[in-house]
Amino acid sequence: MKYWLMKTEPGCFSIDDLAALPGRTTSWDGVRNYQARNFMRDGMSEGDLILFYHSVKDPCVAGIARVARESYPDHTAWNPDDRHFDPKSTPEKPLWFMVDVQFVEKFERPVPLASLRGVKGLERMELLKKGSRLSVMPVTEEEFEIVSRLGRS
């Protein structure tokens, strides 16, 4: 099993939105960064766990999701009316991929980004590195467990 952090703007899609969906599952579409795409396409496996991160205002880890379906072409790239449209991506030669994610748990207490800094065991966490802006990134099992403990306490 691998561990990930996926960022979303809570005004667009929050952990509560995920929890309210039928089956508590949705596709994670619209990723338009090659490195983040590669993590989803080449790294994620069904059952992997995800730290669900709310970005922008009051950034925090809000809870946990899991990969419910491994990567498949992101069809929003083919729709000219979709805000994620990319004319270079086609059904025959897709450039962008997505996974399905499923709600697991909302933390009793969201874990603010600021509180993660200085926590023993998180010194190398990608999220905390200066200039780190990826919307999808790996985390270690230890980082995942530390953040999960903080959210449940």
Which fold name corresponds to the CATH topology?
Answer: ph1033 like fold
Secondary-structure-derived class = alpha+beta
Q: From the 3D coordinates, which CATH architecture would you assign? A: Roll
Estimate nothing, just give the exact number of structural domains.
Answer: 1
Count of distinct strands: 6
Helices and strands in order, then pairings?
Layout: E1 3-8, H1 15-20, E2 25-27, H2 34-43, E3 49-54, E4 60-73, E5 97-112, H3 113-116, E6 136-139, H4 141-152
Parallel strand pairs: 1-3
Antiparallel strand pairs: 1-6, 2-5, 3-4, 4-5
Describe what this molecule looks like in 3D.
The chain is α+β, with helices and mostly antiparallel strands and 153 residues long. The protein has one domain (3-152): ph1033 like fold (Roll). It is 21% helix and 32% strand. It has helices spanning 15-20, 34-43, 113-116, 141-152, and strands at 3-8, 25-27, 49-54, 60-73, 97-112, 136-139. The mean pLDDT is 96.
Features:
alpha+beta; 6 strands; 153 residues; globular; ph1033 like fold
Brief description of this entry?
The protein is α+β, with helices and mostly antiparallel strands.
